[in-house]
Structures are given as C-alpha cells and as structure tokens.
Amino acid sequence: MTYKPARNINPKRKGFRGKEPFLKTGDMIHWESFLERNFIRLADFDIQVEEIFYQPVCIHYLLNGKKHKYFPDFKLILKDGRVFIIEVKALRFKNSPSNVIKYEVGRKYCEAQGWHYEVFTEEEINPSHLQINLSLLRHLGTQEVTDIIMDLVLQQLQLKTEMYLFELRESCAEIDEESFYKAAYQLIYLQEISTDLVNVKLSDDSILRFSS
Fold this sequence. Notes:
Layout: E1 18-22, E2 27-31, H1 34-45, E3 49-54, E4 59-63, E5 66-70, E6 74-78, E7 83-88, H2 97-113, E8 116-120, H3 122-125, H4 130-140, H5 147-160, E9 162-164, H6 165-171, H7 177-189, E10 193-194, E11 207-210
Parallel strand pairs: 7-8
Antiparallel strand pairs: 1-2, 3-6, 4-5, 6-7, 9-11, 10-11
Helix pairs in contact: 1-4, 4-7, 5-7
Protein name: TnsA endonuclease N-terminal domain-containing protein
Domain TnsA endonuclease N-terminal: 48-122
C-alpha cells in the first residue's frame, strides 16, 4: 500500500526540500529542511528505530475560538512497539509561543494514543562531527561487500578488542584496501564495531572497539 502523508510536501522557491532514503526499509522520506534530513539519517542509524513516516498526522485544535491544524514532522516505530511523534525545530524557534502551543497539543494527542512526543533541535541532531560521520558511513558503509571479508575484519578486532583503524587495516593486509574500508565502515554503521562518532571525525586514527 502506498503511504499517504497527512500533508503533501510540495516544491517551493525558497528554502530546501528533498527526499532521503531510509535504508532500513528502502522508503524515500520527504524533508523540508536540512535539519529534518539529518534527523532521518539519525533515526536510520538508531538500532531501536524500525520505521519512520513523514507528515504522519493532522492534529486539529482550537485556540482563542479559532480552528487550527498541526502537522508534526515524523512518526517513529521502535522495535519494542513504542511509537514516537517527532517535531524537528531549529533551536532559535523552539520556544516561540506558537510552537510551544503546538508541542502541548502534540503531547496531549500522543497521550490519548498511548504514544510519546519529542521535540528535536540541532543540539540533539547535529552534535559536533556526528552528521559528517553518518554521511560518510551511509555512503561507504552501505556498499556491497562479502560476509567473509566482514567476518575477517571483525575477527581481527576481536583479537585485541580495541585498536586504531590504521592498525586494523594493517592486520587485514590480505584484504584489498577498498574492500577493507567498505567492511569496516559497514561494521561501524551496523554498530558491530563502536567508535566515537560525535566528538571525533572518522579517520584512520579513530579508535575502534568490538561491540559485545
């Protein structure tokens, strides 16, 4: 069944709009700002998130005797069955009176559904190097590489538990460079290998750890 959002996102002259693939499902998720695009990438990387929907609901509410409509940005379905309605808002607009009213409307709506409501700003979505690293991992860490090579890379890391990326590369000398980096980045993206993606830009000097 084709997904029908509560509100269509149409092209506009000013600002940015686009679509971002949600790699877990293959769906194209529409966004209306780079902050929303980055939230999609963050949700895709979160191993607890199974599905995401854009412009998922239309919430009707009354304010000063007038009818209004509120369209939250995203709906997340988690592995444990929890449902989150997400509003993505630039920090400079987060506490404006009109937005605060929408948050309260969203929370009450979610409470009635047994769902959860959260507001995300660039503080949660774009901390330090995270989005730069996610962009790299989504590009190189999702390219085809054999399970045999993935297993070899992981086995070498398991021998020491922790090592620099360049050390892991040296220990996998039998693997060609392109295949090695595809495998290493994919293992990081799948979170079978852990490294600091927030405070450190991913490089050969990144410290890798086996995720037990």
